[in-house]
Amino acid sequence: MPIKNESLVTSECAELGELQVTHQDTVAKRLGKRPIQLWMVTTVTCSVVVLTAFAGFAHWRFGSLRGGLSYLAGERLIVDHHTKSFGELATGDERTVVFTVINLAGREVQILGAKVDCSCVKVDVDGLPRLVAHGAEARIGVLVRSAKKTGKVSEVVVIYTDNPDVPRLTLRVLGEFRE
């Protein structure tokens, strides 16, 4: 049912203290909703669109939503995933897990070295120290060799950089050793 000239209010009506009908009020009446309900629906819809767009961009640019959130938090050395699984390994097998580090620090960053606590994990240190230009990516290979032990494994790998804001990146590989 059309509404006739409800959004037009003269200055005399406003001076008399009559209710001024806004465009939002008009739209809300046409939809059968109160203005606050219309505002809530609009806000929620816009929020969902923005969050979906951010999630898509973060996954495209950083490889994960966590990478995008890390960037928003001020981190400028972004790791695609801080934790990766190598799956299951039988005794004597080995597998390489690759981490990608994106440098958004505004300057070149050098990856100096790495430290691991278990002899079953080895970081590919060929070419270290490695210079990573601003905007570039560096791939860090972590080789996991199954040991004589069996069971679930979770090992920490610490990568050292010359960036004073992020002197260490902590990565984790996890999986299971089987006989």
Sheet with the most strands, sense and barrel status: 5 strands, mixed
Structural class based on helices, strands and sheet pairing: alpha+beta
Order of helices and strands: HHHHEEEEEEEEE
Question: How many structural domains?
Answer: 2
Quote the CATH topology of the largest domain: Immunoglobulin-like
Could you say what the CATH architecture of the largest domain is? Sandwich
CATH class of the largest domain: Mainly Beta
Radius of gyration: 28 Å
Q: Strand order within the widest sheet?
A: 2-9-8-4-6
What percent of the residues sit in helical stretches (DSSP H or I)?
A: 25-40%
* CATH superfamily (homologous) name of the largest domain: Immunoglobulins
Structure description:
Mean pLDDT is 80; it is low at 5-20. The longest helix has 28 residues, at 35-62. Helix content is 28%, strand content 37%. The radius of gyration is 28 Å and the shape is elongated. Strand 8 and strand 9 (168-178) form a beta hairpin. It folds into two domains: 11-62; 77-178, Immunoglobulin-like (Sandwich), CATH 2.60.40.10. Helix 3 crosses helix 4. It has helices at 11-15, 23-31, 35-62, 65-72; strands spanning 77-79, 83-90, 94-103, 109-116, 121-123, 130-132, 137-145, 151-161, 168-178. The protein is an alpha+beta fold and 179 residues long.
